[in-house]
Amino acid sequence: MIPDEIRKTWSAFKFYTVLLILFICTAYFAFMYGNSHFESQNAKISTLEHTMENLSLDNQRLTKQLNILGVELEVQRLAVKKSQQMLEQGLANEAKLKEEIQFYQRVMAPELEQDGFVIEAFEIKKSLSDRAYWFELVLMQQDKIKNVVKGSIEVSIIGSEAGKPKQYSLSELVTQESSELSFSFKYFQTIQGEMILPENFSPEKILVKTKIFQFKRKRGELERTFDWNIETLQTSTE
What are phi and psi of 75, to 5 degrees? Predict the structure, then answer.
């Protein structure tokens, strides 16, 4: 065998010395390799731990933001619900007040209403031309009647001229561009136009008379008197 030959060639001391040196070198290189691998693994573990820590912090931050958004969404939902309830309550109160107004109107001023048909308002504004005024007549149905009503309107401007009582029909005073004094509607209608007052005539009141038809049958008549006021026209206390 080769070891026997080496042993014969070298002395026992030299042989074992070489073996010891080889063993020490092998152990040293193995230790160095293992230590380097250990440090590499520790570095990877440290990096992974740092990454996990950052991910944990990000997760906490996102969870906190999600909770805040959830609270804000719930607050907004409650606010919208409350607003909707307030709106519904307001509409209900408005409908109730409307019914009460209509009831008292029927009791206190039945002449102002005819089966839900109402002469709501007559408004006037000064025009740029001398003695010229824009007018707007508003007609309504208040009792949720779904049928169309038609009819004719007669408007008289009452006042004084040269110190004596005088009245003019609106049809005598309107310009050619004005609307015809008739109506046909289901819920409401406005009639607008321009009128020119005669010289020396001082208007005091406006008398509106209507004849109401439905299904080609006369439903009734209604009239209402307004005080002449360019800013606001209120019903006369007559």
Answer: -65, -45
Classify strands 217-227 and 132-141 as parallel, antiparallel or unpaired.
unpaired
CA angle at 34 for the pair 31 and 37, rounded to the nearest 5°: 150
In whole angstroms, give the CA distance from residue 229 to residue 59.
Answer: 72
Q: Which residue has the higher pLDDT, 38 or 223?
A: 223
180 close to 204: Cβ distance less than 8 angstroms: no
| Residues in CB range of 200: below 8 A, 6 or more apart | 161, 162
Which tens digit of pLDDT belongs to each residue from 21-64? 888 888 888 878 777 777 788 788 888 888 888 888 888 888 88
Q: Is the pTM of this model over 0.70?
A: no
Contacts of residue 33, Cβ cutoff 8 Å, sequence gap at least 6: none
Phi, psi at 128, each rounded to 5°? -75, -30
Share of residues in the chain with pLDDT > 70 (%): 79
Contact 134, 125 (CB under 8 A): yes
pLDDT, one tens digit per residue, over 85-98 is: 888 888 888 877 76
First to last CA, the chain: 147
Q: For residue 51, what are its two tokens?
A: 């990454």
Instruction: Give 158-198 as a DSSP string.
Output: EEEETTEEEEEEHHHHB-TTSPPSEEEESSEEEEEEEEEPP
